[in-house]
């Protein structure tokens, strides 16, 4: 395997938002945890390898909305994880230009001992927002989450739906350059899910925001995206307009 390169900056003026250039992401599969542990000390432990991304190349220009279509296990989420910096390529080059916000595991990263409000405050600081920015943003996040008085309760008392709502409210409020969405729009009840879809639509309508949308719902892909890439077994099999991409995906 060749060398891997990751180029990541907050330059939202770059006409390219995301570029994958011959990216392969390889995972080692071991029969059990003991062998996995031993493999950290020896290269000779038997294992299978699987390419979650296999020589994957695509470019997303600034302001585009792109759907990554594919069945479960096709490698869509692995591509997103490399964009968000959760995992790294085995070979090839991943470029990301601009601040990335991800609607992935919405309730991840919260401190359950702290209240909802304290968690929002902490996340604003982690994002490097100024006191003025936070002051402006926090009421908007609280209002969107519809948590009412629960916002001052410890998050361990929240249901999973309440946590997801707060996660969505935060992530979708912080005006990213690149928004990554992974089937996260079915948050809470039907009314709140509709509100989430409207929020994503309004983010997409802002021409400077680049959106990458992972889904196997062709209806959702058509609703939100102009372009589509079909991924099968880690490879990009088709790239084009969303209608053509959906046709290719449903026929394959």
Automatic annotation (TrEMBL):
Signal peptide: none annotated. This is Teichoic acids export ATP-binding protein. GO terms for molecular function: ABC-type transporter activity; ATP binding; ATP hydrolysis activity. Residues 35-252 form the ABC transporter domain. Keywords: ATP-binding, Hydrolase, Nucleotide-binding, Transport. It is an enzyme of class 3 (hydrolase). It comes from the Bacteria. Its EC number is 3.6.3.40. The gene is tagH. The keyword Nucleotide-binding applies.
